[in-house]
Amino acid sequence: MIFARFHRPVRHARRLRPIALGLLCAAALAFVTAPLAHAQAGAYKGAIAIDAATGQPLFEDNADFVSPPASVTKLMTFLIVHDALAARRLALTTPVTANAVDQSMGGTQVYLAAGETFTVEELLYALMVESANDAAQALTHATASGREEFVALMNARARQLGMKNTTFRSPHGLPPSSRQIADGDLTTPRDLALLARELVLNTDVLRYAAVRTRPFGAGVRAEPLPMRNHNKLLGRVEGLDGLKTGFTRGAGFCLAATAQRGDKRVIVVTMGGATSKERDLRVATLTEQAFALVPASSVFRGYTPSPISPVSPVGAQSPVSPVSPVSPVSPAEAAPANTATPPPAEEPTVKFVLPPPKK
After folding, report:
1. Does 71 participate in catalysis according to the annotation?
2. Cα separations (Å) of 126 from 91, 108, 263, 322?
3. What are the phi and psi torsion angles at 315 (to 5°)?
């Protein structure tokens, strides 16, 4: 790739003459800032790629573009539930009984019926694999007193992570009843990259996000519901194992993706795509280019869960060890912000093949 040809010689600068090195760096900078920044009509309205180990941006184009994230909102929902697990207020085996509000959710769902009971773990799979809005809603009353308190925790956590241009108003990312974009969830590619980095560093989100297919309700329902991950880059881009797609008319096609190769991990976020195909092709391209720009000295060390079997919180301890770099927030602090190892793939993992450029 052109990116690789620009990038690799820079790591061995002593082999190059100073003048040649200067010209090479200038050419590489021009390549990053000019062609990519002006060739994204339809692919996205804002994008960023970062080194997951350091948080250092590797590429950005309108990265502070404020827009609805659609179902990518569920990444913060996952984090709030993980915080409750880490604080031992919840366990993976905690039973959650669906209510009428959960049942009434629209959009993508696992069709929870009022009175059905599933574990927190099962609902987390529904959240991350099927992108189920009803599972997201059910997790709010399992984790907090209800949706209002849960969303307040989401905003407090966003503020804690430095997501300066983010406001959450739902646990699922569905459009507000007013259908006004300003009344719904709002964030930016840069803010979502911060959230994604927190997740891959300090939670077991990849245990869920990397799953391509899974039945929902096995052992509870007479006929479990087949779930299929909406992230079509899983198994197609080398090392890609998450994280979350999203789409509404107001948001366009969004994707927060992450991939690891050796000891390097990158995060790529795009928002506002015109089609899922254009979005996926651009994320695949940016992933390749981002890996070419990760410094040789960068080493990613992700989350290592405690090897303890999940237990019920009733008369026993929760299995999840507390995570430390960022402590969970309490409801008293909450206010709206201003502004695992994945299972084996079903198919061999191959590098995503991009179509040849049009002449």
Report:
1. yes
2. 16, 10, 30, 23
3. 75, 15
**Topology of domain 35-333, CATH:** Beta-lactamase (3.40.710)
Q: In this predicted model, what pLDDT tens digit does every residue of 276-309 receive, in sequence order?
A: 999 999 999 999 999 999 999 999 998 876 543 3
CB atoms within 10 A of CB 178: 9
Delimit the domains of the chain by residue range: 1-34, 35-333
Q: What is the mean pLDDT of residues 167-174?
A: 98
Catalytically annotated residue among 45, 67, 131, 264:
131
Told to judge if 164 belongs to the known catalytic residues of this protein, a careful annotator would answer no
pTM given for the model:
0.78
Q: Is 327 a catalytic residue?
A: no
Residue 228, φ and ψ in degrees, nearest 5: -135, 130
Q: Which of 195, 77, 83, 196 minimizes the C-alpha distance to 133?
A: 77
Q: Given the residues 74, 244, 264, 318, select the one marked as catalytic.
A: 74
Strands 213-216 and 95-97: unpaired
